[in-house]
Specification:
With 416 residues, the protein is α+β, with helices and mostly antiparallel strands. It folds into 2 domains: 79 residues; 228 residues, Major capsid protein gp5 (Major capsid protein gp5 fold, 2-Layer Sandwich). The strands form 3 sheets. Strands 7-8-16-13-9-12-11-10 form an 8-stranded mixed sheet. A hairpin with a 7-residue loop joins strand 14 and strand 15. Helix 1 runs parallel beside helix 3. It is flat. The two termini are 39 Å apart.
Length: 416
């Protein structure tokens, strides 16, 4: 029981500390402790005398590893955020649009913004439901979302000015052939074209501020707004990109029809079955992961990622290959991703748990397989009336998404 108590201390320790390098060293030390405990557990299972205390210790350390990893991610994100103070602000910070926008946020004075946007013939007028944030603020919001939104960080992202992106593609591929330098070029067969449509839907957040905060000249309000809405936008996006039904939201890759990969056709997402009705196989569970990897064509594998939630990752963290090596490896540096069988692991909490009929693991080249569509422009509407004495900032952006290449993403499905 003494070693079990040490793991409790590990959990407490993982919750504190603000130094990035120290937190990373602590995470790596915890992983070594985890491997030792899990090796002991596996040895006891082989002797058919597994000690419940050892199993509890492994689970406890695994949970502590998850908490330490989240703490590491928070520290990395914190280092990426710009300071809120004005010290050292560049000339861009004093641009005409930014000064007018800040005046609107602090006092509701929209005269400068109205004049600027009328001058530019912009659609971002107050009658349309708010004013556009400055370009640098919009870029900062997009950058932060890419850092904390799991699917956005690995998918293709395209900005559009229209409400819908329509992307044509050839169902049977382009017509090609070999020909001599001076030989006649025979007429090629016409390609069969189809069209993918990616409509954008409105995503909103409504941070609140006190008048004291608005009166504080040291606080950069545009950076404050970006920081307030990043978590709300990332959470909503994360769910929609995975399981969204496409109704007033992006369509998630799990919402498309799923078929056994041996019967795959365009418009469906192929899956590999675990062969067990309720989970991973007891014997050689890593084999189904190998099958999933090699269901992808070689051109997609080289840039592929695993996508799963932390519970699934905790299960896979305990697995070894035939040579006794752990399939899951910790990140090599702070801010990098953990690796599973040589491919990065993206933790997405909206992925389902390992259970009957679920698809808890996705694998593929999401950069080629999934497209995120951002309509340019983030709007802010100042509302000092609805929640007095607080001032609400109704912030909206339009986002769409869906699969653009059905060959590039495969799933692991729990079924016999």
């Amino acid at each position: 029981m003494e070693k079990l108590e040490n793991t409790r201390g590990l959990e407490v320790k993982s919750a504190g500390g603000g130094d990035l390098s120290g937190a990373f060293e602590e995470f790596m030390s915890s992983f070594e402790t985890f491997k030792e405990a899990n090796d002991r557990r596996l040895g006891e299972i082989e002797r058919r005398a597994a000690d419940p205390v050892t199993s509890e210790k492994v689970d406890r350390i695994s949970s502590a590893l998850d908490e330490q990893r989240r703490a590491l991610d928070r520290l990395v994100l914190k280092k990426a955020r710009p300071a809120l103070a004005r010290d050292g602000a560049d000339t861009l910070a004093h641009s005409e649009h930014k000064e007018a926008f800040e005046g609107y946020l602090r006092s509701g004075d929209e005269r400068q913004l109205r004049a600027l946007e009328e001058k530019a013939m912009s659609y971002g007028s107050g009658q349309d439901g708010g004013y556009l944030v400055p370009d640098e603020v919009e870029a900062e919001i997009g950058k932060r979302l890419a850092e904390i939104s799991p699917i956005r960080s690995i998918a293709s992202v395209r900005q559009v000015s229209a409400a819908v992106l329509k992307k044509p593609f050839a169902i049977n591929g382009p017509a090609t052939g070999w020909v001599g330098e001076t030989a006649a070029r025979p007429e090629t067969a016409s390609s069969t074209l189809d069209e993918l449509s990616f409509p954008t839907a409105e995503l909103y957040a409504m941070p609140a501020a006190t008048q004291t905060l608005l009166d504080d000249a040291v606080v950069e309000l545009d950076a404050w707004i970006a920081g307030e809405i990043e978590a709300a936008f990332a959470e909503q996006e994360g769910t929609a990109f995975i399981s969204g039904d496409g109704a007033n939201k992006p369509r998630g890759f799990l919402s498309y029809p799923q078929v056994d990969d041996l019967e795959w056709s365009w418009g469906n997402v192929g899956y590999v079955a675990t062969g067990v009705a309720s989970g991973l196989p007891v014997n050689a569970p890593s084999d189904v992961l190998v099958d999933l990897v090699y269901m992808l064509k070689a051109g997609y594998r080289q840039n592929s990622n695993w996508v799963m939630n932390r519970k699934t990752q905790a299960t896979l963290r305990k697995l070894k290959d035939a040579d006794g090596n752990y399939l899951w490896q910790p990140p090599a540096t702070p801010g990098s991703r953990a690796m599973l069988m040589g491919f990065p692991v993206v933790e997405a909490e909206d992925m389902p748990d390992i259970a009957a009929g679920e698809t808890p693991i996705a694998f593929g080249d999401f950069g080629r397989g999934y497209l995120v569509v951002d309509r340019t422009g983030v709007r802010v509407l100042r509302d000092p009336y609805s929640a007095k004495p607080y001032v609400l900032f109704y912030t909206t952006k339009r986002v769409g998404g869906g699969i653009q290449n059905f060959e590039a993403i495969k799933l692991l499905k729990v079924e016999a």
